[in-house]
Design goal:
With 324 residues, this protein is mainly alpha-helical. The chain contains 12 helices and no strands. The protein is globular and about 65 Å long.
């Protein structure tokens, strides 16, 4: 059963990757990458900020051995990027609403990461995301040079470039004179929906693990905890029907905001534009993140395999039943 599910997961990931890559190619092919003088000037400013962030993340990570520097900036940089775009674009309604939604997203994500101990008065310190130490311990990255290269090219460079790229729909739309319309309403409504979903999912996750920690301090053993805490992993709230509601919310927000490009009238063949590259690449990133998270959880919790078997990653059509 577990092997069959694993094969299904691999096939599903492969199909998703092919679709995403195809959309990226179509977006580039069907639209002309041409920036106005204002857009080019704005992009130059954004690239300067991005380059400084890359250098900070790499140098600080290597010195402190805390590789969550980019994790701490992930929720901050897009807010700065979109407000720079909005300001340079004349604070048009479409850009301001876009920036306000991204700001709400950034506040939510920053608060959620902060309560896990990630931030400190000394910004370069704080709790590191546990996944980096697990990745670092794999046979591929035990070599110091291999890990340093990974830190430079993936953690620092690629992730910073991706965080900038997810804001490209705003950059591409900054000089549009099209009035707000149905596509914009759809874009912003969907983005708010996914923001609420992600916020709700994170709150259920936080409460579950806080309570589990309290119970473990009293009982000392996971098997002695009451249901559902004895599972070890969260199945409360949206987690009972989706394995990664927070990831769905994150991807949904940025894909929804891309729809503003349609409302701005800059797309080709209906939906295609080069600025869709960033939101689509985010989907590929979360494919890897979800796979890693599930591999870790499967190794820690005996019933996590059953959870994978019963509950879809993003489609809430089946709920988890531990008795099945």
């Amino acid at each position: 059963m577990g092997e069959t599910n694993s094969k299904r997961g691999m096939i599903g990931s492969a199909v998703t990757a092919v679709i995403v890559i195809a959309l990226i190619i179509l977006g580039i092919v069907f639209s002309e990458f041409k920036l106005s003088e204002l857009q080019a000037s704005t992009l130059k400013t954004l690239l300067i900020v991005c380059s400084c962030a890359v250098l900070y993340c790499f140098i600080t990570g290597e010195i402190t051995k805390n590789y969550s520097q980019m994790d701490k900036l992930w929720s901050i940089l897009p807010v700065a990027y979109v407000w720079i775009i909005a300001a340079n674009g004349g604070m048009k309604a479409r850009l301001v609403i876009y920036a306000l939604i991204v700001t709400a997203w950034g506040i939510r994500l920053t608060v959620n990461f902060a309560r896990k101990g990630a931030y400190s008065i000394k910004f370069w310190t704080g709790v590191e995301d546990y996944r980096w130490s697990i990745v670092h311990s794999t046979k591929y990255f035990r070599n110091p040079l291999a890990w340093t290269a990974f830190d430079l090219f993936f953690i620092s460079l690629y992730q910073n470039a991706l965080v900038l790229a997810i804001c490209f729909p705003a950059l591409a739309s900054m000089e549009s004179t099209s009035p707000l319309g149905g596509w914009d309403i759809l874009s912003f409504a969907l983005a708010v929906f996914f923001l609420v979903l992600e916020t709700t999912a994170d709150e259920f996750q936080w409460r579950f693990h806080c309570r589990k920690k309290e119970l473990l301090e009293k009982e000392g053993d996971l098997s002695k905890l009451p249901s559902p805490y004895d599972l070890g992993f969260n199945t409360t709230g949206p987690w009972g029907r989706m394995r990664h509601p927070n990831y769905l919310g994150e991807q949904g927000i940025w894909m929804s905001l891309y729809i503003t490009a349609v409302g701005a009238g800059i797309t080709s063949h209906g939906i295609f534009h080069w600025s869709m590259t960033g939101p689509l690449l985010l989907i590929l990133l979360f494919m890897g993140s979800s796979t890693l998270a599930e591999k870790i959880s499967s190794g820690k919790y005996p019933l996590y395999g059953a959870y994978i078997e019963q509950v879809f990653k993003y489609i809430p059509v089946r709920s988890f039943d531990r008795k099945v």
